[in-house]
Each structure stands twice: as C-alpha cells, then as structure tokens.
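Please decode residue identities from the backbone states below.
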C-alpha cells in the first residue's frame, strides 16, 4: 500500500533508541564501582564529554577520561572505562526490524547521533550502518543536537523539508529544538509506544 504520510525521512538517535543507552548504563556502573552518586556523576560526565570537545571531534578519548578523572576521582585505565560503556550499547532487534520495514515502504531511515568515534567502533563490532541511508555523527560534523542549526544542516543535506522528517530521540531537549524548527518528533520512551506512534502516523 502506498505511504500516504507526508513524512519521507525518519531521523533516529542511536543510544536509547536504536540501542540500549550504553553511555548512561556504563556511567551508572562506574558510579557504583567508585561509590559516587549516580545522578551527579552522570551530569558531570555528560557535561565533560561535550565540554572537552570529544563529542564534536575536537578532543580524544584520552582527553575525556583524563578530564573526568580530575573532576570525579574515578579509577581505571582508559580502555577499561571505554569498554564499560561500549559493552552496554546493545542493538535492539525490534528497532532494526522497524528500520528495515520502513525502507520497504521506500522511506528514508537516517541516524542522527551525538556520539564520538565510539559509534564507528560499535559499527565495526556489530555492523548496522548499512541499514541506514546516511549516518550523521556529531564527532564528524563538529556540531551537536544542542545546536538547532545541526537540524537545518542535516535537512539541507538530505534535501528534506522539516515537515517531511520525523525525529526520534530519548532526550527532551533535542526533541524540543527539533520541534521548534518544524520537524515531526517522537520522544522515545519504549518500543511499544514508538510502534504505536508509527501506526498513528500511517508509517506502520
């Protein structure tokens, strides 16, 4: 059946949508191991990865862990700390199946992620880039979803109008910025609610 929705392109976040949120889960494990308050440690670690420039490709993994150690006192070698996070980014099979179903409808699934070079490494471990027409990663773009212009840049590259794009993310701030620019949005809370939204939009 032809797709009657005006939406042609679906922009997917990676961690927390297509995969388990390995960054959050890994930081929770580090906080427990180092006897730190998980919420406070997460806030510090999240701001550090943006603040040091690792998420925009302006700093290295080593820079990030060095900064976070100095701010929080966590222990561990860089490689072990990174693995604590990467091992928890587990792809969600039902979400990948949904991406494939969207492609069969001649829709355009795209990744739009605030990530580091970790995303490339995760793809090497368990390839998934091939399921998407494009992968936009802040590490390579030099810009993040905290900046509204990222959304306009991506839409311009894809030659898509805001109303033709559905943006799926688990971060309310990112969702608000995209919605303010006219994108259709879905704040991801569960696979079930996501599939319900696809059906409501005529995409399932």
């Amino acid at each position: 059946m032809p797709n009657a929705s005006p939406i042609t392109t679906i922009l997917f976040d990676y961690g927390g949508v297509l995969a388990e949120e390995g960054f959050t889960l890994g930081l929770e494990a580090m906080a427990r191991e180092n006897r730190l308050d998980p919420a406070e440690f997460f806030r510090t670690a999240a701001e550090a990865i943006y603040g040091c420039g690792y998420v925009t490709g302006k700093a290295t993994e080593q820079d990030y862990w060095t900064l976070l150690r100095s701010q929080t006192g966590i222990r561990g070698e860089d490689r072990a700390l990174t693995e604590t996070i990467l091992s928890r980014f587990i792809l969600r099979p039902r979400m990948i199946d949904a991406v494939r179903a969207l492609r069969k409808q001649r829709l355009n699934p795209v990744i739009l992620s605030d990530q580091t070079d970790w995303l490339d490494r995760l793809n090497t471990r368990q390839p998934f880039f091939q399921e998407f027409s494009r992968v936009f990663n802040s590490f390579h773009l030099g810009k993040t979803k905290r900046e509204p212009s990222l959304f306009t840049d991506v839409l311009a590259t894809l030659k898509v109008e805001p109303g033709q794009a559905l943006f799926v993310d688990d971060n309310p701030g990112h969702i608000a910025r995209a919605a303010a620019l006219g994108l259709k949005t879905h704040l991801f809370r569960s696979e079930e609610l996501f599939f319900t939204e696809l059906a409501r939009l005529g995409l399932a």
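Observation: The chain has a mean pLDDT of 96.
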